[in-house]
Structure formats: structure tokens, C-alpha cells
Amino acid sequence: MTETVPQDARTPQVLVGDEEIFEAHVGGKLSVELKAPLDTQRALSIAYTPGVAQVSRAIAADHTLAARYTWAHRLVAVVSDGSAVLGLGDIGPAASLPVMEGKSALFKAYGGLDSIPIVLDTKDPDEIVETLVRLRPTFGAVSLEDISAPRCFEIERRVIDALDCPVMHDDQHGTAIVVLAALMGAAKVLDRDMTALRVVISGAGAAGVACANLLLASGISDITVLDSQGILNTGRSDMNKVKAELAQRTNPTGLSGGMVEALEKADVFIGVSAGVVPEELIATMAPEGIVFALSNPDPEIHPDLAAKHAAVVATGRSDFPNQINNVLAFPGVFRGALDAGARKITQQMMVAAAEAIFSVVGDDLAPDRIVPSPLDPRVCPAVAEAVAGASGV
Description:
By secondary structure, the chain is an alpha/beta fold. The protein is 42% helix and 11% strand. The chain has helices at residues 19-25, 41-47, 51-61, 66-69, 92-111, 125-135, 151-162, 170-189, 206-217, 241-249, 259-263, 279-282, 303-306, 330-340, 347-361, 379-390; strands spanning 76-80, 115-119, 141-144, 167-169, 199-202, 223-227, 230-231, 268-271, 289-293, 310-315. The strands form two sheets. The chain has a six-stranded mixed β-sheet with strand order 7-6-5-8-9-10. A four-stranded parallel β-sheet has the order 2-1-3-4. Helix 7 links the parallel strand 3 and strand 4. Helix 5 crosses helix 14 (330-340), helix 8 crosses helix 15 (347-361) and helix 15 (347-361) packs antiparallel against helix 16 (379-390). The N and C termini lie far apart (55 Å). 42% of the residues are buried. Mean pLDDT is 93; it is low at 1-16.
């Protein structure tokens, strides 16, 4: 049995037996590997002085040669200010670095892409955008991570406008892509028309807004979104600009109130908040309901309780069936965008990514297998090919 070490207000809770976790992070999780050995004088003179000067002169004369003779063209910058780390909140740049290192490790393991974690000691959108503009010669794509809403929407928009390379905030769009793929799987296994489903999204932050937008783009028209104050509707005056704009495009029946009103007769519940949804409310959903309780580490409702009332249940955790995990999406999305030489990651590319993820399940589709395993080696190549094909390049 695992015991809990006593803690005070200054000491984080650590579980006895977690030494293996900390040991795996000693010195970080990343290193730089050489593509060729530097074990002779000739190799040294080619890789560095004097040979490297020829390459630098060539790039100075023709900047497009940097894509061939440096790693920048295929390098992903994993960028965060540590203000909204999954399950941890605003922990700052230093504490967020292990998470960004992990993301870089996933890019390499699943997408075959090199990446560098960059944590910024600022929350100012102007400073974040300017920093990435100044660093542009160093990388070929930007994966924004764990930046709090609503700043994340402005920062992503401005970075996309400022840079001529693929940019995506994974907390928004990676989540939305995999949610869409999972909903395709759930609708198929239940023999339902996905576009006719009545969907409730709990959470109007980065993930919730992106999920609503991508589901709308996929033809689902009846979507109700809730924040901590209740259902987004055009009659509310306490919403920020992002929520107010989303309220104009969702909640077609004009619902008001909270979760009670939203979930009654709903077909789908998508939880992307830290809230709790009582079992009795899930019981009010329409028959053969679909529940995606994605909050980590604690789902909005325990999947065993949700399964008493819903036909398909998914979480964000690896210890339950139907794990909706962003790693199904982002390595392939960036790989496909870079393979195609795309300058932007478009909504069409995101939908194509979701369709590709869904397609990998194939004949294995079942109520407890609506998406493939994150470890399935077929996922990234399928997503990359679909994204490159949808890029229009």
C-alpha cells in the first residue's frame, strides 16, 4: 500500500514509492544527439571551423538554404509561460519545464521531430509574441502549451499572424481534434448521426472553446457550453469577448441556467473543466448517451458511475478505456504540416487529423475502443499524411 508523507503548507504531497518518477527526471528528460561522430580532425573541421563557414556564407547569400543545412526547418519550439499547466494551474515557468520537456519527448518518440522546450518568465502577450518573433530563425514550428485563457486565444492569434510557420496551441486544438475523433467513433459504434447529437461542453476555457469551434465546423449545430457561472447565452453580461462571441454561435434553443438545465435530454457530455458532475444529472441525459469526462487527474464523474447511464464513456486517463489523449494528434499534425511545407495549421487540417485518428480504429471499433491507443504506431503516420493532404500546399 502507498503511504502519504506528512506535509505542511510549504511541502507538496509526495507518495512513498515515487522515487522512480523523480529518478527518471534527474537531469531532465532530453539530450542533444550528434548525427555524425566528431572523432577525427577532419570531422571536426567539417562540422565546425573552418568548414562550417562555407555553409554560413551560403545561407547568408540565400536564406532559403537554412531549411536544408540547419535543423531549424524541422525543429518545434514547445513554448509556455506555465500559467495553466494541466491539473496544476499557474505554477510558473520553472515548474512547468518538466512538462514541456515531456512534450518534446513525445514529439520525438511519436512524430520523429526534434523540439526544444522554451519557458518564458512573462505573462505579457506583447512580450511573448515579440520573443517568438525574435527567435523565429531558430525553429520551424511553434507548439504553444499551458497558457491560461483568455490570453491564450490572443497570443495564438498574434503568433500565427506574426510568423510564417505552423503554430498551434495544443491545449485548444489538440484536445479538440481528439475529442472530434472520439465522437466520430462513439457515433459510429452507436449507429448515430453525429451531426444530430445534442452536445453539452462543460468548460469555456482553451479546450472548451476549441472543442465547440471544431464540432461546429464538423456540422454539429446543437452545442451548449457552460462556464463556472452557467450556460453561455446571449443574455449574460458577465462574459469575456471570447465567451460572448461563442454564445452567439451556440445554444440554439436559448437555454439558461446551469448543468441541470443543460444536461436534461442531452446526447453528449464533454467535460474539460475541473468541475464535478453528480451521477443523478448524468442520469437525466438521453438514452444511449456519450460521456467524455476529461478532467485530469480526477474526471468530472467517475467512469464507473457514468457507465451506469451512458453507452460510451471516455476519460483522459490511461487506466480506463477510451483514453482521449492529445498525443494522438499533435505529433502527426506538426509532422504533416512540416512535411507539406505549410505555413499555417488550418481548421481543415484539424478535421482531417480527427478523421485519420478515427480511421485507425477500423474493425476494432467498440464501445470501449472508440479511439486507438496512444501507443499505436499507425496513428502518427496516418495523421501526418492526412494533414499534409489537407494543407493545400
